[in-house]
Amino acid sequence: MAPFFLKSQKNIQKNKIVFNLVDQDEEALDFSKGALNLNINNVSFNFLKHNVLDYINVSYDYSEILGKHDLIYSIGLADYFPDRVLKKLLLFCFNLLNSNGKLIIAHKDISKYKPLPPDWWCNWSFYPRDLDYFLKLISEIGLKGLKIAVEREPANIIFFVIIERT
Questions:
Q1: CATH number of the CATH domain containing 96
Q2: Domain span at 80
Q3: Which end of the chain is more exposed for a tag (fewer CB within 10 A), N or C?
Q4: pLDDT per position in the chain (166 positions), as tens?
């Protein structure tokens, strides 16, 4: 699943949470619709069939469509973009954040496991990075007004970079 965007409560009813889940694959969106409990009070879900690469190619239009957010979370996406594309996507997402909003990007740490190259069995490319390299990419973007934290999942293979807009 591509990034999901948590809509700001400033733009919606008090105590209402809106999740915008984004993927270019209709089957992935359908799976999410089936897996989520869509009948939770004060919580709503929007399923957006978008290609996130369009976000960086036509970013002004999508910035208007998506609006500002308190949280943007992505897992299983950053590993498949070359550095130049990933930096543009990080910049786009950072610019969608409200003050104190957080962008959380998950990435597999190449120094913690040995991947099986996906391009031998499917048409995917994997861009291996370790945490230091990923943090260097963020610094190269030149973002201002942010705090960065890092967490890891229990197996220590995936790191989560948390970028907070201050």
A1: 3.40.50.150
A2: 4-165
A3: C
A4: 455 555 554 544 566 888 999 999 999 999 999 998 788 888 889 999 999 999 998 767 898 889 899 999 999 899 999 999 999 999 999 999 999 999 999 999 999 987 666 565 666 788 999 999 999 999 999 999 999 999 999 999 999 999 999 9
Give residues with Cβ within 8 angstroms of 25, minimum separation 6: none
Residue with tokens 């957080």: 102
Domain count along the chain: 1
**Residue 42: strand, helix, or coil:** coil
Q: Which residue has the tokens 């990933």?
A: 86
Alpha-carbon torsion (79, 83, 87, 88), positive or negative: negative
Find how far residue 152's CA is from the centre of its chain: 16
- Amino acid (1-letter code) at residue 92: F
